[in-house]
Write a structure and sequence with these properties.
Strand content: 15-25%
CATH class: Alpha Beta
Radius of gyration: 17 Å
Structural class: alpha/beta
Number of domains: 1
Number of strands: 15
Order of helices and strands: EEEEHEHHEHEEEEEEEHEEH
């Protein structure tokens, strides 16, 4: 587990999809849960840091793709934590609807065969709270704000702490080989994702945490986000 900022950590060895942990007076909050085989690794790291699984009170989901909710069912069962997510993502988590993806005819070549289909969350996991734009999550860092940032997924949410200028972007922007937009074959509406990315960049964050890739901070974040916005015409 790596400390990013006061009371904010990222877990090690998730392979695909970052998991963040936030420590608050009433317990812990996880953001996303990586791929299915990582549940035990998540729980072990929580225990290695001196906590109990039941110290996890909330699991915030940026969006319901397999690399973000893959370990959700096992982690939620072990912790008893509440799951919070946007409505469309909650429907996937609760196995009420399949994951939303772009139409196959809009994706060229072999990539169309990589588009996930069917209901993605089996077994289903109950969602306790439906996130809405502007919700102030007073339990998390004293006031983490939920921002509706659709495009990559229908009800994708990012999280913003205005006082500390911490931004958790989920998959609106990747930082794997530099800053990029998400892959088109798993992005419902790329133009909408661009609008979400522009909105997030305009916040001028001091610390940016990605669903894929290492965090950026300070002047490095400012310069790289500005260059990215110009390059992809945001």
């Amino acid at each position: 587990m790596l400390k990013i900022s006061d009371n904010l950590y990222t877990l090690d060895g998730m392979i695909v999809g970052r998991v963040y942990l936030i420590q608050d007076p009433d317990g812990l909050t996880l953001i996303d849960t990586s791929i299915p085989p990582r549940a035990n690794a998540i729980l072990k790291q929580i225990e290695s840091a001196g906590f109990k699984p039941t110290d996890v009170k909330r699991i915030l989901i940026t969006h319901a793709h397999p690399d973000h909710i893959g370990s959700l069912h096992k982690v939620q069962a072990a912790t008893g934590a509440e799951v919070w997510a946007g409505q469309a993502e909650a429907d996937v988590i609760e196995s009420k609807s399949p994951i939303a993806t772009p139409p196959r005819e809009k994706v060229g070549g072999i990539l169309k065969f990589l588009i996930p289909t069917g209901t993605m969350s089996k077994p289903s996991t109950p969602v306790a709270r439906i996130l809405k734009e502007g919700d102030v999550l007073t339990e998390v860092l004293g006031g983490l704000v939920a921002l509706h940032t659709p495009g990559h997924a229908i009800d994708h949410f990012s999280f913003w702490h205005p006082e500390r200028r911490i931004l958790i972007v989920g998959d609106v922007i990747f930082n794997m080989i530099g800053l990029t937009l998400p892959m088109p074959f798993v992005t419902v509406d790329m133009e909408q994702d661009k609008r979400s990315a522009a909105r997030l960049i305009a916040l001028n964050p001091d610390l940016v945490c990605f669903g894929h890739g290492a965090p950026l901070r300070g002047q490095d974040a400012t310069e790289k986000l500005a260059a990215f916005a110009l390059r992809v015409h945001l």
